[in-house]
Amino acid sequence: MRFVLRFHLKSSTTKIFKTRIMKTNKYFTHIRTLLFTIFIGINLSFQANNKIPLDSYFNHLSEANKEWRHHKEIVPKGLVSFESDKDRIQTHLNLVIEHLSKNYSSTFNSDQISNRLFLLNKLQEYADNKVFPINKYHPIRTPYFVDHLGTNCAVGQMIYVSGNEELVAKISKEHNYDYIKDIHTVGVVEWANEYGFTLDELKWIQPAYAPTQTMEQILGGANGRVTKIEKDLNGRLIIAGEFTELDGLPCLNVGYYRNNQLSCYGTGIEGKINDVMHNSQDLYVFGELYHNGQLYPMAMFNGTNWSFMDIPERIGAIATSAFRRGSDHKIKVAISHPSIPENQEIWHYLFDNTWEKQAKVNGVINDITASSYGRVHAGHFDSVTIYNSNATIDTTISVNNVVIHSHHSDTWYGIDGEVSDTVNTVLYVGNTLIFGGTCGYESGDNKVCLSRYYNSILQPLFLNNFGLRDHSINSLAHRMGSEIILGGDFDIEFMMGTFGSNLATYDLVYNSVNPIAILDKPVNTVTFSGYDLYVGGDFQDNMEIPINYLGRMTTNVGLNENKAEINLNVYPNPFNSIINLEGIEDGAKYSILYIDGRIAKSGTVVNQRIIDLDFLPKGSYLLQIESTKGKVVKKIFK
Question: Comparing C-alpha atoms, which of 492, 488, 416, 481 is closest to residue 451?
């Protein structure tokens, strides 16, 4: 089942217990991991696609399906290793099919036996093809009835080839990540009886799938919290936070990762870093920085030395957020200062190395980003005062935690709609702004965790409606297509077989969130470099695996994975009005998606073409094709 963020347990007793243990955060993760092991029977292996070492047949088969404990008498003797989890699942299915083909209930009639043998033959073809669901969203071994690419599980495939596609879709909608024993969809029992299977046999057939993603500590990690990871123009990852060591070597608060090495910018810098940026030559850091006993809002490293920069009218300011150059300035920075208590100011550092005051907010700015709408400023504030070129008050406007400055018209404006009580992070994807922030759980709280602004409409994406505590989205990153990475301080638990903390994916098309880690403490920053996700925060372990403040998550799931062998050729690419398709039959379903996941056009393929695409603006898109051979996704351009 596609599922919206839920923060609750399955029984009132467990809820009371969990509420109590939450008071002691130090032990909470260990206890809930133990609870989940008891309830679900998880395996915490992250070796999804590595060679699986030598072990007994029973241990390997039980890894694929715990029901083997009821069938020990037919488990092969001796030891075995597998090249991949796919090979292990194939062996599991081969052995189950062999036994079920020869053994069945004496109460079955001839039609049931005929149906049973027909579907077991189809299941053997399925096992021989070795194309199984991909566990993309869960950090532990989990059953998937249908995965994100439309691949059926073993039981789902039997129901599908029996002509009951609607039942497959219904089970996927209601119980996609559940074991057979927990699937209560109307029609399952009737189908099993008609086709000559018992529910216990279906339980035995259904495997669970190992995670495709792995998280590992980056070298020796850091020895303190990481607050910012930012990719620079030279391919390095800037790493900033509150630490004194990187990879076991002295480094004060700021370094970088490149070519599998962690290094320091000089010896680092004293103070608290809130933001970083890099141009083609120099590194800039912003925050509460100290040098020779003096407080500075920003500093620059030229590759050799640090130079500290102040705003003449605001000596001793603290910078909370900054953004790189615009058409009229080098740097935009938001600062706090004793002269403006409970307020912040936005300043521009101009090309002539002077400063210009732009605006003042009644509150705090946590993030600034660029977009087609203009520069977006987000945080916790309810009004903005705009200054004219003489640094005198021009006008004051009321806003709700977000204000946009359009450089084209030189206007400032807020946006109406539901947004978090405090916005921590902003992501711009495909003409869409995504806002993440704090979301309460009690009656009367602002429950908006994530919201989207598109086409002048601000709408909440998901809410903390069933939480046991306040939650926070601290950082966002765009993976590919419609998928967003969420990092923060939140739990996703005991809902449709899903469990995790502080790191998750969010699908803009299906409005679903799925955890990809169980980190003991909050995530502060996430970013992509290539296909790898880099994560920084306060955490020190992921399901009791040490990850010292700095982790990297790799995945073997790529954009162009498909369910079957589809050799699809798309041309012209870039396209104008028509897309030609080779290797796909007429009648196949297609969807053209904007990069942010919205559907631009959908239909069926006619004459191996998709036509009438003049209305699409120039840009990048995703083409998804679904045929009898499976699904495939291609990136296309106009």
Answer: 416
Q: Is 187 helix (H, G, I), strand (E, B) or coil?
A: coil
Taking alpha carbons only, the member of 548, 547, 546, 550 closest to residue 536 is 550
Counting every residue, how long is the chain?
638
**224 vs 83 pLDDT, higher one:** 224
For residues 27-40, average pLDDT: 36
How far is 634 from 518, CA to CA, in rounded Å?
32
Cα 519 from chain centroid?
A: 14
Contact of 488 with 501, CB cutoff 8 Å: no
Q: Among 116-130, 365-379, 460-474, 585-599, name the one with the lowest average pLDDT.
A: 585-599
Cβ contact 468:444 at 8 Å:
no
Tell me the chain's radius of gyration from C-alpha atoms: 27
Task: Give the span between the Cα atoms of 569 and 563, in whole angstroms.
Answer: 16
User: Residue 76 has what DSSP assignment?
Assistant: P
Class of domain 569-637: mainly beta
Q: How confident is the model at residue 596 (pLDDT cuts 50, 70, 90)?
A: low
Count of other CB atoms within 10 angstroms of residue 525? 22
pLDDT at residue 391, as a whole number: 66
Amino acid residing at 229: I
CATH 2.60.40.3080, the chain: domain bounds: 569-637
Residues 61-87, mean pLDDT to the nearest whole number? 92
